[in-house]
């Protein structure tokens, strides 16, 4: 007779109080014991490995429906779990846009038995659906509302203050923001230089980002609405956001913490093009300075794949965006190995942080009663990112060929070992993520 369904043994387990050499017992997909577990139906030996709370990537674009040549829900989720990510929030700029109850229901149906990780879907804000957002944000399986203040991939755009105020007035959940100022960018279109992707951050400059962040903070305070500013790229924005933590949380990406424009654009060309842009090494260093001051709350990948044929077009015809869900954790583990942040801080930004910011139910920590979501890593593994390892349908990464220290070895979602040592489970068992605000208002 077994005491638990599953036991993880031998690993260094990262609990809310710190790391400990303990066993974990799982029954019916939830953690039921930490320490002395007893017998189990299945035992996973984690000797020499670190067991982290399941990594949550709260910004991915999996492109389905309508853009499946770039990615779909199955391939994106496969890339996620191969990179150690156990849950994702997927973005609404698909074709059609995810801007209605029917569109959310369609994505949830598409995800069933196809997504390897747990998942939630953002609803895209528009001028047309502003008054309906208070109902849409409460749909089961929704991560909340997403506002594009500046045009990016797709045609979701809410650029004017009056429209932004209407969106912010409708609902209560935290609103995710793409903060680039559309009017300024339109006025600066001539800053783009044909054939020169290095002109991308000149066009979409620091001021475009800072101006939009200043505007949305002012509007959010007037509306008494909490916001979450995505993929922050400038130290000035992080300094500003640090003064508004009562209403604003924010995200940084591994790309902006790793790449510097001076090196990236000559080497990668349009493959380094994304919105907001990869900026200078000084910007990157500034992001790290504010990260170590505690200002960014989460790390999200902004996984935004395009095909090789699209990215090979001459700038500015080339689309903005790069894949990143599979490399999020490897890149950040390498930064841990190189001393830029602690493993404790990384765990906070990829599990406990998303739980706090978005009110996720049952995820974000290794504790009794929580979902049995674990990311198992080998902190000492030395390896190189190879194209053959990548699972995204787009088939490329700006980090191919990069030598790293620290590798995801396993992904366990609600007690299901969905990935171990590069091998997937027999079936995809991802389920919708639950949220406090949807359950209890």
From TrEMBL:
Pfam families: Amidohydro_1. Residues 51-418 form the Amidohydrolase-related domain. It comes from the Bacteria. PROSITE patterns: DIHYDROOROTASE_2 (PS00483). Residues 300-319 are annotated as: Disordered. Gene3D superfamilies: Metal-dependent hydrolases, Urease, subunit C, domain 1. NCBIfam families: PRK09060.1, pyrC_multi. One of its GO terms (cellular component) is cytoplasm. Its cofactor is Zn(2+). GO terms for biological process: purine nucleobase catabolic process. GO terms for molecular function: allantoinase activity; dihydroorotase activity; metal ion binding. This is Dihydroorotase. The lineage of its organism: Bacteria, Pseudomonadati, Pseudomonadota, Alphaproteobacteria, Sphingomonadales. Belongs to the metallo-dependent hydrolases superfamily. DHOase family. Class I DHOase subfamily. Catalyzes the reversible cyclization of carbamoyl aspartate to dihydroorotate. InterPro entries: Amidohydro-rel (IPR006680), DHOase/Allantoinase_Hydrolase (IPR050138), Dihydroorotase_CS (IPR002195), Metal-dep_hydrolase_composite (IPR011059), Metal_Hydrolase (IPR032466). It comes from Sphingomonas naasensis. The keyword Lipid metabolism does not apply. SUPFAM superfamilies: Composite domain of metallo-dependent hydrolases, Metallo-dependent hydrolases. Residues 303-314 have a biased composition (Basic and acidic residues). The keyword Metal-binding applies. Keywords: Hydrolase, Metal-binding. Its EC number is 3.5.2.3.
């Amino acid at each position: 007779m077994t005491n638990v369904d599953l036991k993880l043994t031998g690993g260094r387990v990262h609990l809310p109080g710190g790391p400990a050499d303990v066993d974990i017992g799982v029954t019916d997909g939830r953690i039921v014991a930490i320490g002395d577990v007893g017998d189990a139906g299945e035992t996973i030996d984690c000797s020499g490995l670190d067991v982290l709370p399941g990594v949550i990537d709260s910004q991915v674009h999996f492109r389905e429906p309508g853009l499946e040549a770039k990615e779909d829900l199955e391939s994106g989720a496969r890339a996620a779990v191969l990179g150690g990510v156990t849950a994702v929030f997927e973005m609404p700029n698909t074709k059609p846009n995810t801007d209605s109850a029917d569109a959310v229901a369609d994505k949830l149906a598409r995800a069933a038995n196809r997504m390897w990780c747990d998942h939630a879907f953002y609803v895209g804000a528009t001028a047309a659906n502003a008054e309906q957002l208070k109902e849409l944000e409460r749909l089961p399986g929704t991560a909340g509302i997403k506002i594009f203040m500046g045009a990016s991939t797709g045609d979701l755009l809410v650029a004017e203050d009056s429209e932004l105020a209407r969106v912010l007035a409708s609902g209560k959940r935290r609103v995710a923001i793409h903060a680039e100022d559309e009017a300024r960018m339109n006025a600066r279109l001539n800053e783009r230089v044909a054939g020169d992707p290095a002109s991308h951050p000149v066009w979409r400059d620091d001021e475009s980002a800072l101006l939009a962040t200043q505007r949305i903070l002012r509007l959010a305070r007037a509306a008494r609405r909490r916001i979450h500013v995505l993929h922050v790229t400038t130290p000035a924005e992080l300094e500003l956001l640090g003064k508004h933590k009562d209403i604003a949380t924010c995200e940084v990406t591994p790309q902006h913490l790793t790449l510097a424009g001076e090196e990236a654009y000559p080497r990668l060309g349009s493959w380094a093009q994304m919105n907001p842009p990869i900026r200078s090494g000084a910007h990157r260093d500034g992001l790290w300075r504010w990260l170590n001051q505690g200002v960014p709350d989460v790390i999200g990948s902004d996984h935004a794949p395009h095909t090789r044929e699209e990215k090979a077009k001459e700038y500015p015809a080339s689309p903005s965006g790069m894949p990143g869900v599979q490399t999020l954790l490897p890149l950040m583990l390498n930064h841990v190995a190189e001393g830029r942040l602690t493993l404790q801080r990384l765990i906070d930004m990829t599990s406990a942080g998303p739980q706090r910011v978005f009110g996720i139910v049952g995820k974000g920590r290794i504790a009794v009663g929580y979902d049995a979501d674990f990311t198992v890593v080998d902190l000492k593994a030395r390896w190189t990112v190879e194209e053959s390892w990548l699972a995204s349908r787009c088939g490329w990464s700006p980090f191919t060929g990069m030598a790293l220290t620290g590798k995801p070895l396993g992904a366990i979602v609600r007690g299901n070992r969905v990935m171990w040592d590069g091998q997937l489970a027999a079936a995809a068992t991802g389920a919708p993520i639950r949220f406090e605000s949807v359950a209890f208002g």
